[in-house]
Amino acid sequence: xxxxxxxxxxxxxxxxxxxxxxxxxxxxxxxxxxxxxxxxxxxxxxxxxxxxxxxxxxxxxxxxxxxxxxxxxxxxxxxxxxxxxxxxxxxxxxxxxxxxxxxxxxxxxxxxxxxxxxxxxxxxxxxxxxxxxxxxxxxxxxxxxxxxxxxxxxxxxxxxxxxxxxxxxxxxxxxxxxxxxxxxxxxxxxxxxxxxxxxxxxxxxxxxxxxxxxxxxxxxxxxxxxxxxxxxxxxxxxxxxxxxxxxxxxxxxxxxxxxxxxxxxxxxxxxxxxxxxxxxxxxxxxxxxxxxxxxxxxxxxxxxxxxxxxxxxxxxxxxxxxxxxxxxxxxxxxxxxxxxxxxxxxxxxxxxxxxxxxxxxxxxxxxxxxxxxxxxxxxxxxxxxxxxxxxxxxxxxxxxxxxxxxxxxxxxxxxxxxxxxxxxxxxxxxxxxxxxxxxxxxxxxxxxxxxxxxxxxxxxxxxxxxxxxxxxxxxxxxxxxxxxxxxxxxxxxxxxxxx
Length: 499
Fold this sequence. Notes:
Low-confidence stretches: 17-21, 36-45, 481-499
Number of strands: 11
Largest sheet: 11 strands, mixed
Helix content: 40-55%
Mean pLDDT: 87
Radius of gyration: 24 Å
Shape: globular
Order of helices and strands: HHEEHHEHEHEEHEHHEHHHHEHEEHH
Distance between the termini: 27 Å
Number of helices: 16
Oligomer: single chain
Strand content: 5-15%
């Protein structure tokens, strides 16, 4: 036994000793908390939250004279991911070697021009995961943007800088791209709205491709009305559309992946639509089983494991096909540059890139067949009035500057949730729903390919009622989880074991 422990044992009955011990422990706790707050303050004071690669100002096109309507985005500012061309600037693709080996852009990306024409002002390019090959938002060359909601945690990627620029109120909205969750995951981690529109709905001309079959241009906003206005400008939507009834379909098996209590997600949404007109009674389903039955080409990709149920196996297979498709198309796009330049990449990015470059692909047609069947599958499920509801992410972000990264299971869960829209090409909106245990809560709404206006209108229609329900829930006592234990105590145990 150590000398201090021997001393404590021999004087255990002395109350003065316990006072000294109590004061000492309290002092250690206060010191640790002080250091934590100082570190948080230092992070928050970092210029621009580390969101930007470079700052500039590109003014909008002049307002046309009357009787032309006022530009729909007049007075708004936006930032763009460093994947979009801006005339006379080099597009860096998140990597200094890419920037060094490419010339300045001769033209403006089509999507940037559309925003300028609608009255918005562009104020700079934002940090991203290198070559758009990541979902954490970290960048060893330019620094990792600071998540304003959780400064000690990753912001999510690959459109991390754009999400942070919006969440930190540096801009009104921002552009990113989404391949395997690159808009949706940072939107969830930063507690803001993110829109991944229908595949092909926004022109990719002037944006560096990662995987054309999965790539979409999306955007972030703090306010649903701004999200809606940007959508109308980019998608050239009609201002008026016949109002349809809306049917929300909860994917129960996907909610089971999340640790957030149902009362803070499903119940909030159900109660919100109860206060609104035009909504049918919500339905519940096992999405994995539905996909297994309606995407027959997936059977060739199922893992042979007795531990996985049919629905779970189908979801994992779908995410596996998504990654295979991304790797195949990334290789076709960038193999020559990677082999000739041999760029300096972060270890995790290097692993992703090498996996893409070195993998031999044989049954490519089946990957595209799954994609086609998946779109038809969701069209059959959602028809013209359905909206699929599930968590945007299953796990909270991990801490910055630690050796701990996503476990294989956490990574799999993230890709399963992302694969639904990526592989179907359907439109998806990420919606913030307050916080749980200090982490932002997010759910996603998906509608069929081409239903972008219907989906954006729904989010705008519902959000005030959602906010009201979130406020009610946040003022209640902790909820018991499915095992009858209070979720707060369980999460405290998780935090202690993780620290």
